[in-house]
Automatic annotation (TrEMBL):
<keyword id="KW-0547">Nucleotide-binding</keyword>
<dbReference type="InterPro" id="IPR000719">
    <property type="entry name" value="Prot_kinase_dom"/>
</dbReference>
<keyword id="KW-0418">Kinase</keyword>
<dbReference type="InterPro" id="IPR011009">
    <property type="entry name" value="Kinase-like_dom_sf"/>
</dbReference>
<keyword id="KW-0067">ATP-binding</keyword>
<keyword id="KW-0808">Transferase</keyword>
<keyword id="KW-0723">Serine/threonine-protein kinase</keyword>
<protein>
    <recommendedName>
        <fullName>Protein kinase domain-containing protein</fullName>
    </recommendedName>
</protein>
<dbReference type="GO" id="GO:0005524">
    <property type="term" value="F:ATP binding"/>
</dbReference>
<dbReference type="GO" id="GO:0005952">
    <property type="term" value="C:cAMP-dependent protein kinase complex"/>
</dbReference>
<dbReference type="Pfam" id="PF00069">
    <property type="entry name" value="Pkinase"/>
</dbReference>
<feature type="domain" description="Protein kinase">
    <location>
        <begin position="1"/>
        <end position="143"/>
    </location>
</feature>
<dbReference type="GO" id="GO:0004691">
    <property type="term" value="F:cAMP-dependent protein kinase activity"/>
</dbReference>
<dbReference type="InterPro" id="IPR008271">
    <property type="entry name" value="Ser/Thr_kinase_AS"/>
</dbReference>
<dbReference type="GO" id="GO:0005829">
    <property type="term" value="C:cytosol"/>
</dbReference>
Length: 143
């Protein structure tokens, strides 16, 4: 959840597959001057595919809300995982650091600066691999 949006767990009936549906109030996005952040997130995610980045499937809107259908990461936030464990072993810390570095290196190779790296924005998939999420502060640099 955020200041102007919420994320809902949704299931596609035909495939039984789960997704994360990010729902943002248009009036709140405008009131909080977040239009550029929402645009940045969509622009970056539609152009990147990497195992350690959350996947954007589609976007839509109606009169009141903006919608982003994203890959669901059932492992939750790295932040929560870290809180329950207290701290990581050196090997586990290096594992996550390596995956995050791979994701950032991939983005930088496409002239994208992430700009919001924190445990709350790192999700874990069902196998324990990272998925960077929340690309509102990301910026695509000119080539």
């Amino acid at each position: 959840t955020g200041t102007f949006g919420r994320v809902h767990l949704v299931k596609q009936k035909t495939t039984e597959r789960y997704f994360a549906l990010k729902v943002m109030s248009i009036s709140d996005v405008i009131r909080l001057k977040q239009e550029q952040h929402v645009h940045n997130e969509k622009a970056v995610l539609k152009d990147v595919t990497h195992p350690f980045l959350v996947k954007l499937f589609w976007t839509a809107h109606d009169a009141r809300f903006l919608y982003m259908l994203l890959e669901f990461a059932p492992g939750g936030e790295l932040f929560s995982f870290l809180r329950t464990r207290g701290r990581f072993s050196p090997a586990t810390g290096m594992f996550y650091a390596a995956e995050i570095t791979c994701a950032l290196e991939f983005l930088h190779g496409r002239h994208v600066v992430y700009r919001d790296l924190k445990p709350e924005n790192i999700l874990l998939d069902r196998d324990g691999h990272v998925k960077l999420t929340d690309f509102g502060f990301a910026k695509k640099l000119a080539d």
